[in-house]
User: Fold these one by one.
Assistant:
Number 1:
Amino acid sequence: MELMSFFRRSDCARAIARAIARRAPDRRVRIMEICGTHTMAVHRHGLRAFLPENVQLVSGPGCPVCVTDPVTIDHAIALAQYPGVHLVTFGDMFRVPGSQMSLEEARAAGARATVAASPLDALRVARAHTEEIVIFFAIGFETTAPAVAALALAARRERVRNLAILSALKRVPPVMAELADAPDLAIDAFLCPAHVSAVIGAQAYEFLARDHGRPCVIAGFEPLDILYGILMVLEQISVGRAEVVNEYDRVVRPGGNPVAQALIADVFVPAAAAWRGIGIVKQSGLFLATRYGDLDAERRLPLPRRPSHAPRGCICGAVLRGAADPEACPLFGRSCTPATPVGPCMVSAEGTCAAHLLDDEPEVALSACGGVR
Amino acid sequence: MCLGVPMRILARGERTATVEFGGVTQEVGLDFLPEARVGDFVIVHAGFALERLDLIRAAHTLELIGAAAARSVDSTARGEGGERWN
């Protein structure tokens, strides 16, 4: 689509970078983005080179696979190893190292596990293997939650009895509030996730502006979306405003997608959930409602959780929280690489550590311009 | 996961649609966009159409970005305020 290519024009990007430099205050400004795709876009296009030194783009916990806590990952792997169980989940989760091994390694050793591109794939596996209990390990934010809700409804509708859902789904606004209130992180504003916002709407961030005093700009994924979004943040900061602004209004509506929200409200209930590196965040998890209890893997297979630990030396937790850059990790680029990942941030296609590796050779999608500095 | 490429609806049934991007087609669920029409561009995620892409708003966004870019080139302009969204 030719129209979208305009969102990558380098001359425009340089001009917006000039506007950013003019609009930036003298002090340091820290803007947190909470979207793995934003993280990847920033590094793929080398966008940090377009920002003055004192405007810092901080990556937050925007990668659903990365923020899944080690105990839950070990639990999913243990379930996959249980006789008669067939685990289905998204591809990224297969390579995340658990305490003993990754799901991929468990599968190589005989556990039944299948990659899904859509939650509905789990239904196909369940119909094809009626002798197994098929568990869909649901990882994702509000972008993915509606699709998992649709899976639950489809299983009901088609009377598929051998399917269960292990939900590790999470909500983004509660963790944003948690991080906004963390004094050591010094977050001044947020660049809000694009497609989470398509579901929950711009209004979902109002409380962050109103109660936590943080400007929130919803931005698309293209280079100009992100740069212009940053300019919008700086314009608010320069006049002491804290509002929700929607740069991505070509997709995100003020109220979001009401049909998707209704499905989420029907199938899930929010409750406290553990985020890797951050701890328990109230109301931040989406778990199966009681009326869908027959589909809840926690009830169908109540295996006890085992204690878990993060790999030694791995600082994914601090990276996810926005407290450290990957470069501060002793393992980054040494023992932890995409081929030999130690932590999830290097495994995932949306992981901050994997994204930082793109800094060495950013794909120049912005036509032949380089940075401003 | 949150990749959401805009894909064009080539055909639709009651609950699903055939969408296309870069010559590749895919079936997606219309559970969240029951009113979607052939010819619409939709953001696809995890096998479902999530939202419609509004091309008129896209063009408007580009206008606003272009205006901000033009102001930055003008050395006398201070770029105060700027257009307000929504």
Note: The radius of gyration of chain A is 21 Å.
Number 2:
Amino acid sequence: MKMANQVRGNVFRCQSPADLSNARNVAIEGRRFLEQQALTPTELNAWELAITEALNNAVEHMQPDAEPHPIQLEILALPEEIEVRITDHTPGFDWPEDPTLPDPLSEDGRGLFLIQASVDIVRYWRDKEENCLILKRHRETPGTDSGTCLEDCKKRVAELESTLEEMTEELGYNYEALVAIFRRSADLGNALDQEAFASRVLDDLLQITGADLSVLRLARDQGARLDPFLIRSPSGKVPKLQSLSLTMPPPSGSPMKVKMGIEQTAVHSHQDVWFKSNDTQWQQDPLLQVGNWETGLCHAIYANQQLIGSLTLGRTSAETFSTAQINLLHTFADFLAIQLLNARLQDERLQTRLMHRELEIAANIQETLLPRALPESTPFSLAGSCRNALQVGGDLFDVLAVGNRGILFLVADVMGKGVPAALFGAILRSTVRSLPHLHHLPHQLLATANASLVNDLSRVDMFITVACLHLDRVTGTLTIASAGHPPAFMASHAGAPVTPLGDAGLPIGIDPLATYTPVQTTLGPGGWILIHTDGVTETRNPKGELLGEQRLIEWLESHSATFSDAESFKSGLRHMADAFREGTSLTDDETFLLAVRHPSKHNPLPR
Amino acid sequence: MKLEFIPPHTLRIQDMPELTAAQAGTLRDAVQKARTPDHQRLLVDLSQTTFIDSSGLGTLIALHKSMTSSGGQVIIYRPSPAVQQVLELTRLHRVFQIETE
């Protein structure tokens, strides 16, 4: 047998096996009930004592071999008094009229006295097999009427049921929403395109919220406008919506009153906008073209304070959206925003990666085009240098033997970047190599190359500056033609001043009929020539200053004589440029060619 | 329930949330086992005792009788308000020595 208790309004009932331990527990339960009846601590203590003593009594008077009957406690919390009934199934005992205290040193006999002292009225009803002890005590603070108590309970139950219903509904929505979101998240792994993905998310939302009208717009142009992205309408006929401008309306007080539509209002105020088709306020709004909005809600979607778009949901029936449904709208909007932002970020990352890759490829192409070995050049020494900045790929140089006593030098700078520039560089090189009969006539070489490439170059808005030189090793005669290229620098012999060389015509790719003027000079012993691209003179130091032609000339004047051959001259020039840059990296390709005539007067014939 | 010997002569009993019929036997046995002739004072700490009934009172009286018969004493130490109320109601506050320090 276990203890079982029951509370109905202001009545407490409890029953338990008849032993001292359980009796005490029953008394404690009784006290708990009385605590809810707002009794004072004094009353509570008194009742706990009385009930414990009475229940102990009932237990102690049980016959040892009698059938085990439970003891029973009943408490009635009446408005003016508390009534306690304790039922036992013992033979009972005689309740003295006026219980008194026993001898002070007596160990027993105080129970009845304590009961009497704790309550106002004691009645002991005895029957054959069942007895009932009734205790009453007046209440210090009156309780509520049992009638109203029931009404209160009914009201409370109704309130609780209503709350429970709301919570269940919300929970149901949240569950459905979660399932939908999980499903869509799984879709992401299947690389759906943006539109298909957003479309499915929107359909989920419509289904769960029971909406049948929807317009999703995405922010474009750094939040300057809202473009229509997806539209849902029960009629199936979907109107074509225009892009909405989001540029801030002119400040108030200006003569022109700009009327903002529903979506613009939501975006600018950062608050949801409720609307209906028959609202006078929104008469001309483009949203109304989509359908008959009996109820509509427009929500601006922001993520990380960035405007993503607007999501408008509505119904052709008059039922407004519940709080749970509105929460769902927000949740789905947020989810969509995160996915779109992510997609954008991935795109940007991909773009960056692709660009880097392209530049890598361009640099590789360039590298393969540089001459492996320079041709026999006695009495000249030759050196070529081409250092790439990763961001470009347009410089190149080439050195070709012409007959058995000539050398053709080519330095070119393709104006453009990346793989296209590198490809045009390659085409130029091939074109030049394919015209060996013009290798000793640089001006004609340039004109022919130009005629051949001008159409392709102008189609992609690119051009190439070129410096082209022919050197006769035996005589030291130099013939130079330039297509828009920076002048070469030379010293005609050891100790001669540094002079620029070259009469620049138009770059290749501009005018199909361009012609070029050759300029001739001679390099004597110790003489040299430097052909370069503007990556050499336009390099910058950390302060932002350009190296410039002047500084280059000054350096050449003071240092050129110290170099006995092209290789050391090349190293010197590279070091000078690096020192000027103070260790910062190249921002443009640095390309140059050097030819240095051996200083000896002895002029061996070429082999 | 916790028993502690406090030199030179005191045995202290404490941590009894209630003193009722159920605890009566346990308390008596515990004291009987722990007590030695050295223990002249039985300090019953009722500061944490929130409920006492007639059986509990009976147990205290039994302890009192047992101690005093061998020259000792029982001290009711810091009775809680509920216990004090019952002691006064049954006039046992004149029988026991009650200390509040």
Note: Chain A is about 35% helix and 25% strand.
